[in-house]
Prior knowledge:
By secondary structure, the protein is of the alpha/beta class. It has helices at about 10-20, 25-30, 55, 60-70, 85-95, 105-115, 125-130, 135-140, 165-170, 180-190, 210-215, 220-230, 235-250, 265-270, 285-290, 335-345, 350-360, 375-385, 405-420, 425-435; strands at about 40-50, 75-80, 100-105, 145, 150, 150-155, 155-165, 195-200, 275-280, 300, 315-320, 325.
Amino acid sequence: MRRTAPRAPRGLLVLAAAAVAVSALVLAGCGGSSGTDASGKTEITLSMQNPDVKTADPATWAIVQAFEKANPNITVTVSGEAVAEHLQKLSIAAQSDTLPDIFWVYKSNAEQMQQSGLLLDLAPVLDELKLTDSFPASTIQNFSAGDVIYGVPYQGLLTGLWVNKKILSDNGIEMPQTYDDLVSAAQKLSAKGITTISNGANQSAFSVWSFLTMLDRFGYGDKVAGLLDGSVQYTNDDFLRLYEHIDELRKAGAFASNVSTQTYQQAVDQFTSGNAAMLDSGVWASSAIQESGIASDIAFWQGPQFSDGVGEQNIIMNVASAPFAVDHNVADDETKLAAVKKFLAFYYSDEAQQILVDNGQPPVTTFQANVDPTTQSALKAALDAASADGVTSPQSQPDLLVPTPVANAMYDSIYGVIQGQLTPEAAVELVQKAFDSNR
Length: 439
């Protein structure tokens, strides 16, 4: 939702090798166009991590439509694929210097592309557009390498557990705070045939957001640098303890019996139809929840705190999502560069940030959004949880700080335990092997 250029680094080469059979097809539709299209308009390409951006990402789609209306001489050609295919496509394009003009990409991949000279330095662009101060300082820092800014925030990543308070109260369960509270709730709900946490592993292995936040409650933020350089092992006692807790939740009946076969969207449907007490998701689900019959019963929970955790427990994942990056070749075409600058100026304008909010997304700038508590009660619940007294946020979501194959291993390890296919020991070993292979 990644040129006769310098040789791409190992992470990109691994993805490219896996995709060689489809490279010709991918390259045909990946690179940015030059100059103007047949109608005389300036064309810029925007490549996203959704195969149907209009339906799956209505906020971005609405911003593009508003931008084109305000700039009738510019056409934004939007394309997209599922995350894995999208990253594979970008990897291939990086090998031949045919990246799209603007594209969504994992932070780790963007860092590799920047190191290889494939991305436009956005620092002078943001300064020229007077946008630098529009972002929280942590956002700029997160997408910077020295003085170079290689990415800008696409959307906010505010994640946690959506909670149907009525299901809890109907079953005599208080709103949980701790891990022990969550296990107790799962046991009571399971005894009555009710799913506690709705997840969907099929075609959406990345949908384990609340569990990624739990990693930070076991010291991930302090360990990640060592994990990347090999001085810290993923098979450490702290992470193993977390995976053992996930296994305990499975044994308590916390997850749907069809978690292996249902998709993320089906997990959302399970929750919005009133058939699960909680949904592992993020703020992007607020619109679907708002339109459902359970909107008035909703709370947003940051997730459980652990008595045997490591470091700060009162945290919520409220960070910039994977960034937008811009192909360095854009700088060689003055007309296209001007169009890209106009697009960025519009995307981070107050008008576009309110469009994000109107579509159930928090602003990514310091813009103070107008959130209607009547028609956007779900979104307000999430924003209120993120701004509660004493709540802090990690710098970034754990999977965004590692190479893509490692991120995939993290997803598979968590779902492997949720589904009972992996022991906690086997799960952490799976991720460690991915680190070893991608260092």
